[in-house]
Every structure is written in C-alpha cells, then in structure tokens.
Amino acid sequence: MTMRTAPSKDNPSPSSVSIDGNHLTLAHLESVARFNARVDLDKSARDRIDQSAENLKRLASSKTPIYGVNTGYGIFANRRLDSSQASKISANLVLSHAVAVGDPFPEEVVRAAILIRANSLAHGYSGVRTEIIDVLLSLLNKGVTPYIPSQGSLGSSGDLAQLAQLALVFTNSDSHVFGDAEVQAWFEDCLLPGHEAMSKAGIELIALGPKEGLALTNGASFSTALLALAVIDSRRLLFSNEIASSMTLDALLGVSAALDERIHAARPYPGQQAVAQRMRNIISGSQLIDSTTRVQDAYSLRCCPQILGPIWDTLAYADTVSNIEINSATDNPLLFGDDVLSGGNFHGEPVGLAADYLKIALSEAGSISERRIFRLLSADMNANLPAMLIADRDKIGLYSGLMMLHYTAGSLALENQALANPNSTSSVPTSAGQEDHNANSTTAARNLRRIVENLTRITAIELICASQALDLRMKETAGKSPGTGTLTALKHIRKSISFIEHDRPYSADINLVSEVIRSGSLLTALHNAGFDDYSPVL
After folding, report:
1. Could you tell me if residue 154 is inside a domain?
2. Which pTM was predicted?
3. What whole-number distance in Å separates Cα of residue 113 and Cα of residue 226?
4. Do both 151 and 284 map to the same domain?
C-alpha cells in the first residue's frame, strides 16, 4: 500500500501532530492519514488517562455493576461476571466481534480511523491505560496498516467489526489461536500476518485489561474517517467544479447578469453569494461573456450559484460534524471521576446523516456538470462551436471528437444518483432487540466516498471539454480572450493534457485531470494568479 504524494510548498501539511482529545483538526487528520505525519500523545492527556485507568481499576473490584467490565455485552448486559474475569471479557469481545467482510479499506481510511480512535481515548473518559493509545500511535508512526474489511458495520455501537479487526493486530491473547488469514497488516508494502508485521516494525503486542476491548471497539471511527476524508476532498473538488462551471460559462458565451451581486443579496444564502462572487472574479475581463444578444442562459449555467451554493452550505455542516466527531469520546460506558455512566456516544447517527446529506448534495453537482458537458458537445446548444468539439469541422463524422466523454459523465452521474439514496433511514435491530435502532453510518460514508470519486471524474471531464471549447472559441473569434481566471485555469489544464486535434483514447486524459483536482494544483494555480479564495490548504 502506498501513500499519496507529499504536499508541495504551496500545500503545506503538519509534519507532526500531538493529540489530547480536543484539538485534532482535519488538516492534522489528512497529514497523518495521507502524508505519514508523526503523532504523539500530549502529556496533559497522559495524566488524565492514567487517572481514569486507576479509577476504573478500583471500581472494577467493587460490587457496583459496570457494563462490559463485570457484566456481559449487548443482550448480556444484565449478566453479572466476576471482576477477576475483566481482562478475559476484553479479549473475548475482540475475538468474537471481528466479523468484517469484503474488500479492505484503503490505507488512508485505516490510518485516519486509528488516529480518531486514539484521540477519542485521549479524553481520559474510557478507563484505558496509556499503553493502549501508545500502541495505536506506534501503528501510525512505524507504518503498520491493519487489513480491515470494509463491510459488516451498522455504525452502532460504532464500527464494531472493523475496530475489533484492528485490535486483533496488536493484542496478545491466550484465549484463542487464530490463523494467519484472520489478522493481517501491511508493513513496508508487504501484506503479512498481523503479529509478524508488528514484530518486524518493533512493536510489542499488548494484553488487554478491563474494559479495554470495549473502549477499542466502541465508536464510529471508520465511518468518521470516511466522512472526514470526504469533507477534505469535497472542498477541493467543489472549488474545481466551480472553476469548470466558469470555464464552461465563458466558452458558451454566457450572460453575466445571473451573477450580479444584487441578485444574490436578495436571497442571501452564504454559499450562493460566495459562489457568485468567485465566478464573477474568474470570468472578469472576458471578451466572450455577454457577446451575444441572449437575455439569459439555461439553468445549468444561470443557476450555478443557486445549485452549487447549497452544496457548499451542506459541506459546511458535514465539516462541523467531522470536527466534533474526531474530538469526541465515543465509547460506553464513560468514566467521570468515580461516576461510570452508560450512554450512547458510540451511535453513528450524526455521521450517517451528514454523509447522506453530503451524498445528495455532491450528486447534484455531478448532475448539473453533466448537463453543462452535454451543452458543450451539442452543436445546437454550444453557440456555434463544432459538434462534439471536433477540432477540424471537415472531419466531423470521420472523427467522433469528445462524444464518448459525455457517455462516461452520464454513467457516473447516474451511478451517483443511485448512491445518493439515504442509508441512514435504513435500520435493523440487533443483539436480540437490545440494540434496536442502528445508524447504518458506515454504508452511508462508504457510498459518499464513491460519490466523491465519481464527481471528481465528472468534473475532470467538464474541465477537458471546457478547455477544448475555449481553445476552439479563441481560434474562431479572432483572438477574443476569456476571463483572466478562466485563462489561468485553461493554461494549467494544458500542462497535463494537450489540445485534442484527433480522436484518441480519453481515459488517460480523465485520470490526469482527476489528479489535478485531487492534488489541489488547479487551486494553487488560481491562488498564485491572485484569486485568493482558491487554496488547496485546509
């Protein structure tokens, strides 16, 4: 498994992160998940954690029932167990709950989830020893990435199956012997038996103590990792989609009136106003805009602020949820001094709903982008550009031009519309009815990740088509220039893909421009040209 390319000087990322349960940011999370930043546990957090572990140790030997310490789990919560069995209870929970199936999560998702789990325990409300958090951080710092199947979580009581699979890699239990296929991890790009990966990395296995199995497996850490990474990517993606929208508006000789500040002040949604302002800035100085007698454009051009704006507002909500969740204590029960309180912070409902909202919103961005691609390629809608943007009009029919790019965009947009159906509205009861309403947050967040990837490719296709259209427009209109920002974006796209003179396979072009979007380099180009709102830095 490989990491993403390290951020450039234009996209700095922290080289080290200190966690204390309260101050983890999405920038920190990305630096650890994708760029291998080192993580340490803050000393103040160590003191809280040690005190909490001492409190739990003392309380565990009392006659007071404490869920998961001297009781069973789930439907067995009322089954009292001897406190001397507390460690065995932890080990058995991890062994019995490791039932995840399917393809493995990508490395960045696993690393993000490990960081989120460690930060949750750093609050000092979980009763675990600092050694538990230290071993989690050692996985990150020494490059051991557990193989975690992606299916099998209902998001309540958190991502139980995946977190148990994670715990198996670094725990040492004599209660059961499992084969190499049961627990695996990547180390130095090799998939190894989990304990072998730990040994090669120089990380000692750890025996679980009272409640530690429960603390490791309770919480929507993988759901949150997926949501948080999607929020990070969606910010760069929506900026890029806006740029594509502006390039298309310029190429199709759009009408600027729809971006007028007064219109958006009359309906003052923050996202709508911001999109209109940025689009005004990008097309500023264009000799193509308003060059026809057309009074207004089709919705896919005219209503960009009204459609993309609410998507930004939805992203802002998902961003808030992500930031709260990565800094929350999410296992059960929680210790507050001598008070041991059973609750439901593990429930993934906030994460699932935010993922579903963002799925719907991003699907809409793909739908409107597909409509603009359609207009760019259609001779009766693209203001006299060649059909399918074929460079030589004499070759129309001999060449297909960019025709098939629309097919791919349409397919991805349709897939996103299906994936956008909410998952958090679906629930099945588990544990004989004790856990009778589940969040389904992991499925929602997994589908969100797919939508982000699909939208990245749709946006890449629009950037390819808009770039071709702008080059043709400038060629056919005696050198009339598009807006300053539009031209900057066009020049940057041309660094990755050339003008399309003849038919060619376009998959490579889509992949190249998709990477321009993911890397944030398009935003850097605009930012360096004086468009300050565009920055790949979180």
Report:
1. yes
2. 0.95
3. 8
4. no
Would you report the helix, strand and coil content of the chain in percent, each value rounded to 5?
Answer: 55, 10, 35
Look up residue 386 and give its DSSP letter. Answer: P
Domain check: are 243 and 391 in the same one?
Answer: yes
- Residues 117 and 216: their CA atoms lie apart, in Å, by 7
User: Does residue 337 belong to any structural domain of this protein?
Assistant: no
Total number of domains in the chain = 2
Q: Which residue has the tokens 């069995």?
A: 85
Q: Are residues 160 and 244 in the same domain?
A: no
Beta bridge mates, 145: 186
Domain that holds residue 483: 227-329+346-425+441-528
With respect to residue 9, please indicate whether it lies within any of the assigned structural domains. no
Nearest to 285 by CA among 531, 536, 535: 531
- Cβ atoms < 10 Å from Cβ of 66: 20
Phi, psi of 269 (to 5 degrees): -75, 135
pLDDT in tens, 446-505: 999 999 999 999 999 999 999 999 999 999 998 799 999 999 999 999 999 999 999 999
Does residue 67 have an active-site annotation?
A: yes
Q: Is 470 helix (H, G, I), strand (E, B) or coil?
A: helix
Domain closes at, from 219, 248, 268 = 219
Residue 8 lies in a domain: no
In contact, 215 and 331? CB cutoff 8 Å: yes
Tens-digit pLDDT profile for residues 242-260? 999 999 999 999 999 999 9
**Which residue in 67, 125, 147, 534 is the catalytic one?**
67
